[in-house]
Every structure is written in structure tokens, then in C-alpha cells.
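FAQ

Q: What does a record look like?
A: Structure on top, sequence underneath. For example:
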């Protein structure tokens, strides 16, 4: 068990300097004042499975900094695990909650689940005291909540960031496996109402995820800064960085033979001068990478059949690049399935024609420096014509929220978490079926050849995030709930 130190970051005064955020902040601080008063004599403990990577680890530091600035005592604990079976099991649980997989959960799974969590109990109890509030995030540390409850007089909340709109045999099986821990929890938090198992609906609050507009991943990057980050990270190679040195570890790209090398070793990605379609996610079958690549190839092939090669609509498609960004596997030890999915994507890429291989870039983003990783994602999103999230299933999809904040138009699937954010033809497009390759290809072509519409969708997208998906709306809901449980 590790207690995580929160580095310095934006303060309430920093947000107040931005006119669009000042109103949100002032309303927020006024609303939460009575909640903070009720929380002053206890400590809130956030518990999850990792301090880097993923939406939870990204959201917590900003929320905690603001809460602390307002006088709330909140701390962050991360469980430790060295059991590969545990990682395999929690990935199966994750997939099953999304309706994927059909492998039953066994007594052996239960023993592994509880053993790893029990190994973290002693250290957890050194921190957590009677009267505290404990928030357990996602399935990995769920048994730890039960064990803490048996030792301490605390209020216990389970926060689930994933889900599936429809309850299937697979989801019912995994919820049955997890239900044995539910009685130990006082309350539950989900992202969407449709994700909630019926057995706990009466004790559940809905709190959608949100972004921090001033984080490194979302802060404003002017043209020179954006171009500098692309050079520092090795994505562009036009000249050496002018103001800052290269990052210690550079972005790598999958080569035509499946090996990994520098981004421009085989061909110049030329991300600055070309239209770019971007998807950034972890390597997960549910993210729809395979289908997106197939649709991109189809779009290109259909374009070559057009007779007027001088038309701007033809040239726009011809020169478009598809860029996938995901974690470099050399920095990820707890996601064995991620490497399998990346290898499947590489095999698909190796079978693509040489000309199309130059138009497709699978980028491996280093994770050794969270700030640099966030800036790379930020620069890639700002350099794209539009951002895609082609998820088969998606709990929420902060990558779409991030792009919308940056006034990037988005193309998303009809997965519930994405459909909740994006309003079709208002701030992006929804392609309902992520596996309908022909429709996806046509929709991408439509977006590329509708630059005025993209401008409108991007403008509206930022307003949508300001209204619904900043950390202030999320933290307001959390402080209200925690004060009521207190």
C-alpha cells in the first residue's frame, strides 16, 4: 500500500483568472461551503490500483488539490500487487462488466482477489481511522473495503467508473461475483444510471467523470509550444527543439515489419501539414482500433476510385493520416491483455499495402514522465483534424471530453458513455455502430470534407464541457454526497 503525494498544481485563484472558469468556481465555492463544514473533522481516503495511467489517476490529483485548498482533508492510497493472476482476474472483471468474455469466476479467483487485497490491509489500517470516509475506486481494491470495514468504524463508498447499458448473462455473472462485497458499502457511485445493478439502485449516486481544464493534458498550447512538444517527443523531425531539450524517452512508432523505432525512421509522419484523424486509448479490444483501421483503409480505397483527382475533396482524403496513440508496452507491467491487443493491431498493420502503411501511424507513448505524456497527448489532440473514440463499449471516455475542451470536433461510437457527452451534429458526430466499417468510413470522409461544420462542432464542444464536465461539477457532487454520509 502506497500513500501518494500530490504535486503542486493549479490553485482556485488560477482558475479564477479565466473568465469562463471564474463563474463556475465562484458558484462552486458558494455551494460547497456547508458541505465542507460538515467534513472538517474527518479524513477522506481515496483508494485505487494505480497512481499513473487511466482516468482515475488523472482526475484525483486536481480534485484533491481544490478540496484541500478549501479546507478538506483528503488523501490517496494505492494498493500494491505482484500476482499476475490478480491482474488477469481484474482484467477479466473489467471486460465482463463491459459485457465481454464468458469465462466463469471460480473459487480460485476469489482466493486470489481477497489474498492480494488482504496483503494491503495492514498498511491501510495504519492510515485509516474511525470516523473517516473511504472511497474505493473500481473492482481491483473492492475486497479491501470489506476488510477495512471489519476493523474500522468508517463510511465506505464504492466508485465504479465502468459499465454496460444492458444487463447480460456475462454482466450478471460478474455482478454476482462482486455482490458479496456490496453489503459492506454504505453507498455507490456510477457514471450513468444504466450502469447500476438493480440490487443497489436505491443506494447509488450518479457522478459523471470530468476534466481539469488547467492540467498539462488540457492546458492551452500556443502554436510554437505545440510544435515544440511534437519535436521534443520525437513525433516531428524538422529540426531540433529550440527552447527545451528532447524528452528522455521519445515516442516510438510501429514499423512495417512490426518492430518499434523512431517515429520518422521509415517515413515522415508529417503531422503538421496533413489532415489527421486521431484516436488515443489504452490497447484494448473494446476501444475499436481494429475496426477504425479497416474503415480508414476503405475510405482511402473508395477515394482512389474517384475520377476528379484535382478536386480538393479527393486531395483531402488522399493526404490524411490515421494516428493511433497508446501506452508504450515497456512501461506497462500490469496489463497483459494490452500487449496481446497491440500485437493483434500490429499484425493487421503488417498486412496493409506499403502506401497505406505510410498513412497509418501506431504510436507508443512513453509513461515514465506523467507530465510529458500528458503534454504529448495534448499536442496530438490539438494537431488533429478531429478526434475519434470508436469504442465498442465505453464507461465514459475522457479522451472525447479532452478533445471537446480543446475545440476539436469528435467522432464517437454509440457507446453509452460517449453518447452521453456528444450531441450528434451539435458538437460532433455519433456513428452508432463502431463495427459498421462502411458507415464509419463514410462518416470520416464526411467530417474531413466538412471543415466549416467541424469548426462549429468544435466551438460547441468546448461550451458543452464548460457546462457539464469540468472538475467543479464533479467535485461539487462528491462533497455533497460525502457530507451527507458523514
Amino acid at each position: 500500500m502506497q500513500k501518494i503525494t500530490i504535486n503542486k498544481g493549479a490553485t482556485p485563484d488560477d482558475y479564477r483568472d479565466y473568465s469562463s472558469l471564474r463563474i463556475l468556481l465562484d458558484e462552486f465555492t458558494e455551494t460547497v461551503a456547508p458541505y465542507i463544514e460538515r467534513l472538517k473533522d474527518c479524513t477522506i481516503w481515496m483508494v485505487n490500483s494505480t497512481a499513473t495511467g487511466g482516468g482515475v489517476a488523472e482526475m484525483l490529483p486536481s480534485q484533491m488539490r481544490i478540496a484541500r485548498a478549501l479546507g478538506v482533508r483528503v488523501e490517496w492510497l494505492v494498493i500494491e500487487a505482484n500476482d499476475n493472476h490478480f491482474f488477469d482476474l481484474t482484467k477479466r472483471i473489467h471486460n465482463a462488466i463491459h459485457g465481454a468474455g464468458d469465462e466463469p469466476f471460480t473459487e480460485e479467483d476469489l482466493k486470489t482477489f481477497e489474498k492480494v487485497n488482504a496483503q494491503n490491509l495492514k498498511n491501510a489500517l495504519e492510515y485509516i481511522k474511525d470516523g473517516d470516509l473511504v472511497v474505493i475506486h473500481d473492482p481491483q481494491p473492492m475486497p479491501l473495503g470489506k476488510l477495512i470495514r471489519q476493523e474500522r468504524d468508517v463510511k465506505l463508498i464504492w466508485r465504479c467508473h465502468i459499465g454496460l447499458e444492458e444487463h447480460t448473462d456475462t454482466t450478471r455473472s460478474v455482478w454476482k461475483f462482486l455482490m458479496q462485497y456490496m453489503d459492506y458499502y454504505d453507498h455507490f457511485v456510477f457514471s450513468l444510471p444504466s450502469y447500476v445493478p438493480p440490487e443497489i439502485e436505491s443506494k447509488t449516486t450518479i457522478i459523471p467523470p470530468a476534466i481539469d481544464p488547467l492540467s498539462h493534458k488540457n492546458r492551452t498550447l500556443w502554436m510554437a509550444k505545440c510544435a515544440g512538444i511534437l519535436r521534443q517527443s520525437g513525433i516531428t523531425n524538422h529540426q531540433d527543439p529550440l527552447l527545451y531539450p528532447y524528452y528522455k524517452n521519445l515516442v516510438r512508432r510501429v514499423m512495417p515489419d512490426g518492430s518499434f523505432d523512431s517515429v520518422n525512421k521509415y517515413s515522415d509522419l508529417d503531422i503538421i501539414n496533413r489532415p489527421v484523424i486521431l484516436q488515443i486509448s489504452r490497447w484494448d479490444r473494446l476501444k475499436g482500433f481494429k475496426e477504425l483501421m479497416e474503415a480508414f483503409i476503405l475510405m482511402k480505397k473508395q477515394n482512389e476510385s474517384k475520377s476528379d483527382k484535382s478536386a480538393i475533396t479527393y486531395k483531402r482524403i488522399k493526404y490524411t493520416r490515421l494516428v493511433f496513440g497508446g501506452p508504450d508496452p515497456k512501461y506497462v507491467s500490469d496489463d497483459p491483455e494490452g500487449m496481446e491487443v497491440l500485437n493483434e493491431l500490429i499484425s493487421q498493420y503488417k498486412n496493409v499495402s506499403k502506401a497505406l502503411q505510410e498513412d497509418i501511424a501506431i504510436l507508443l507513448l512513453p509513461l515514465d514522465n506523467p507530465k510529458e505524456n500528458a503534454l504529448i497527448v495534448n499536442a496530438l489532440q490539438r494537431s488533429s483534424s478531429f478526434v475519434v473514440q470508436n469504442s465498442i463499449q465505453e464507461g465514459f471516455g475522457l479522451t472525447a471530453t479532452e478533445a471537446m475542451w480543446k475545440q476539436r470536433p469528435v467522432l464517437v461510437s454509440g457507446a453509452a458513455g460517449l453518447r452521453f457527452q456528444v450531441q450528434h451534429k451539435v458538437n460532433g458526430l455519433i456513428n452508432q455502430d463502431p463495427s459498421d466499417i462502411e458507415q464509419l468510413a463514410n462518416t470520416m470522409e464526411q467530417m474531413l470534407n466538412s471543415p466549416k461544420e467541424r469548426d462549429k462542432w468544435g466551438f460547441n464542444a468546448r461550451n458543452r464541457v464548460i457546462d457539464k464536465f469540468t472538475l467543479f461539477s464533479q467535485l461539487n457532487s462528491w462533497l455533497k454526497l460525502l457530507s451527507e454520509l458523514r
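Q: Is there anything notable about this one?
A: The first strand starts at residue 2 and ends at 3.
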